[in-house]
Amino acid sequence: MPFSVSIKDANFKWDQTNFVQNLTLNNIEGHVRFLNYLGARPSGLQIGGSKGQLRFAMPSATGEAGDSLGEEDFPFGFDEYYCNSLDVLFGADAPIGFSEVDAIFSYAGDGGYQVTLDEGTFRADGWEDFTVSKSVMRFKDGALNLKALSLKHPLKSWGSAGF
């Protein structure tokens, strides 16, 4: 039997040897399985926030990054993590990124994780904003792999012409 949980905000930071720098989530809600009252790690179907920011950057420190975490090593055991409005920033000055995308984070097997992005906006300095149809990114062994990126045509300046 699940029970509801809510957290005002959370901020996760990684060391400077990783591409992932930090993740901030606000207004987190979810349903936790009853066994968590008995000391098991928090788990359930899904938990997520209404707004968040995920920042990637080039590692600024040398050295060995920590070992990859398997699903069992993560401090929570939810099947799915989500954010209804996530900003994804690449770089310190963020010349490229996603704004207000719906995001789902999940374990993809073999020690990897996957982020699926829907809707929202993709922006790159010097270009019109593109509406995101879908994007899939995978993280494994310290690498970020952009598996898919589908963008809708920026109709504002191009009329009805298609790609």
Written account of the structure:
The chain is mainly β. Helices cover about 0% and strands about 60% of the residues. The protein contains one helix and ten strands. Strands 1, 2, 3, 4, 5, 6, 7, 8, 9 and 10 form a ten-stranded mixed β-sheet that branches. Mean pLDDT is about 80; it is low at about 160-163.
Our count of domains comes out at: 1
* CA(first)-CA(last) distance: 50 Å
Structural class: mainly beta
Strand content: over 45%
Task: Give the proportion of residues in helices.
Answer: under 10%
Rough shape? globular
Mean pLDDT: 80
- Uncertain stretches: 159-163
Structural topology:
Layout: E1 3-13, E2 20-32, E3 43-49, E4 51-56, E5 77-90, E6 96-109, E7 112-118, E8 121-124, E9 130-140, E10 143-152, H1 155-158
Parallel strand pairs: 3-5, 4-5
Antiparallel strand pairs: 1-2, 2-3, 2-4, 5-6, 6-7, 6-8, 7-9, 8-9, 9-10
